[in-house]
Amino acid sequence: MVSDHDRRELFEALERRLGDRPAAILMELLPPVGWADVARSSELAAQGVAVRGEMAELRGEMAELRGELAELRAEIRAQLPKMITANIASMLGVAGLVLGAAKLA
After folding, report:
1. Is the Cβ–Cβ distance between 95 and 88 less than 8 Å?
2. Average pLDDT of span 67-81
3. Angle at 78 (CA atoms; ends 75, 83), nearest 5 degrees
């Protein structure tokens, strides 16, 4: 593996041989890490295929969640009239108790 010291030695040798500007340009063209760390286009393409597969899987899961949310929404809408009726009955009961307590007082 090439160290920073090795890169500096190379740069200094290039400066002596080519001059400051050409040496700097050449060093900028070199990758900052070893060639083993540079990805090939085939590897990037394989990663792209994998990412597209994962995205398709996530889209499927999102569609499933949308279906479940629609089911929950339908259940809540079905329960809403019962909840309203129970609430009105409770309010009438409390009103009756208040009126009864007022007559006793």
Report:
1. no
2. 96
3. 110
Q: Which residue has the tokens 């792209």?
A: 48
CA–CA dist 5, 19 (Å, integer): 20
pLDDT reading at 88 higher than 80: yes
DSSP codes, the chain: ---HHHHHHHHHHHHHHH-HHHHHHHHHHS-SS-GGGSPPHHHHHHHHHHHHHHHHHHHHHHHHHHHHHHHHHHHHHHHHHHHHHHHHHHHHHHHHHHHHHHHH-
Where in the chain are the domains?
Answer: 1-38
What is the tens place of the pLDDT at every residue in 15-25? Answer: 999 999 998 99
33-43 per-position pLDDT tens digit: 666 666 778 88
